[in-house]
């Protein structure tokens, strides 16, 4: 049986959040009122429940961003007819010469080179060029 001095020493070494049981009594430590909600005895989220708003916001951002990028092809034909233009001189020429598959692979290679160049960017202006222009603009020219 531990003495009172030993119990106090153990209690002082363990912080409140690491101590699973009350060493002096040997029963589970009672939770503080702030750790448990009064309804249904469920634990209160540490962020007050705002984590679900972050999840919802992130989901909506992906729905909008991916929805726009993946559904643009639906509007492309109507936009080219409305503005009386083609898909672009570079893409049209590359597609006519090499075909769709090779043109798409060239776009992926250009984007990869732009991303790899961004790794070695010595300043922000080079990053603008490599990531923004090479990887961003030129990739979509070929895709």
TrEMBL record:
InterPro entries: MFS_trans_sf, Proton-linked_MCT. It comes from Paralvinella palmiformis. GO terms for molecular function: monocarboxylic acid transmembrane transporter activity. Residues 1-43 are annotated as: Disordered. Residues 1-21 have a biased composition (Basic and acidic residues). PANTHER family: EG:103B4.3 PROTEIN-RELATED, MONOCARBOXYLATE TRANSPORTER. This is Monocarboxylate transporter.
